Amino acid sequence: MTDVQLFPSTVVRIDGARDVGPSEHGGVYARRLPVWTRAQYPDVMTDFVMSASGGIRLAFRTTSTTLALQLHTTVLEMRGETSQLTTQVVDVVVDGVHVRRCPVGIDAAIVVAEDGSIGAREGGPTTTVVDHLGDGDKQVELWLPNGTATAVLSLSADGEIRPPTPETRPRWIHYGSSLSQGLEAAGIVSTWPVRVALSRGLAIYDLSFTGNAMLDPFVARSIAAAPADLITLELGANIHNGASMTARTFGPAVDGFLDTVRDGHPTTPITLVSPTPFPVAEDRPGPVVRGDDGNYVVTSDEAAVLFGALTVQNIRDTLRDIVDRRSRDDHHLQYIDGRDLLHADEAPYLVDGLHPGDAGHEVMAARFDALWTRNGDWETATSPSP
Asked: Which fold has domain 3-162?
């Protein structure tokens, strides 16, 4: 290798992160939310999900045909159950086109025992080779693994590594649940938000947090403070599945989240997206757990609805009503029903009764793109920002 970039690097740009700092494993960590938010995470699970590097990518120009990327990756092991997401990849995008994905090693684990105690299993780092990049000068993006906390140590190449082209693409912030993060997909570039971003030439800031799209105020403040030409908020799935709110608290929480985002983005187009179909839970409240067969099941008593427990359909109705009410004054707000992204009769796209796999994400991307661009704000918002 003729060029070696050690991190922190003044040549390689890290996109999609708001917190980059020295890692205990060497190199740098990259996290999607600002550093101040970490003091407000309630538990180790939240901390890990917020640390996952999906949506973060390394951008640079090079004439190289082969790269070697040294990473340290960490997964979460909960109560003796190793994550089913132990196969992780780096997605390689060249001049805006996804060309391949390269498996990465799993180097360490955060281990939560049956009694709740937290330990660690250490190892690594490991090196991923990215080859057959082709001749000529090109812009390369290396999208980090979707389901690991990742430290970036070094990038080596058989040619010169140079700074990337300055970012001029419209900036899109997307906030969502596992329905957006797509850990069941083959890689981050297969998820529906990133598919749309690449096809439309958008610079995505991906705030998809599996199990943790809980309308946290620190996320709303982070979105308000970040530059954005477009904002989308996929809401409600985690609220239902965790039974974390009621009919009394959910609507005001959505309004408060929107109020905070609007403080930072008074006229930026915002689209609310409701949950996709969840056949066993449409008319039943959470909580939801994974069954012995790998599919998700509802554990609640249906009578809980009488005391304000939320069904999936309750959540869709509330989100639609909020957009209808607010859009009388806020003309840059729209709603997309999740059942228009995946239809109720398309259960085969769900790998576990809830989450779409690759084919489902592809369908969702196409349908979302068509619905989203009907908004009259879209063409104006997607003109490059100064």
From this structure: Jelly Rolls (2.60.120)
CB 236 within 8 A of CB 215: no
Q: Categorize the per-residue pLDDT at 377 as very low, low, confident or very high, splitting at 50, 70 and 90.
A: low
- Domain 171-381 in the same topology as domain 3-162: no
Q: Alpha-carbon torsion 267, 322, 200, 210, what sign?
A: positive
Distance between CA atoms of residues 275 and 257, nearest Å: 17
The two three-digit tokens of residue 53, written as one number: 């590097």
Dihedral sign for Cα 105, 99, 182, 349, please: negative
Work out the pLDDT band at 303, boundaries 50, 70, 90: low
Strand partners, 234: 273
Q: Rounded to whole angstroms, how far apart are CA atoms 60 and 12?
A: 5
Is the CATH number of domain 171-381 3.40.50.1110?
yes
**pLDDT (0 to 100) of residue 291:** 85
| Extents of the domains making up the chain | 3-162, 171-381
120-142, pLDDT tens digit by residue?
888 879 999 999 999 999 999 99
Backbone angles phi, psi at 141, to 5 degrees: -120, 125
Of 173, 209, 169, 154, the C-alpha closest to 5 is 154
Q: Where are the alpha helices (DSSP H) in 182-311?
A: 192-200, 217-225, 237-241, 247-264
Q: Is the pLDDT assigned to residue 198 strictly greater than 50?
A: yes
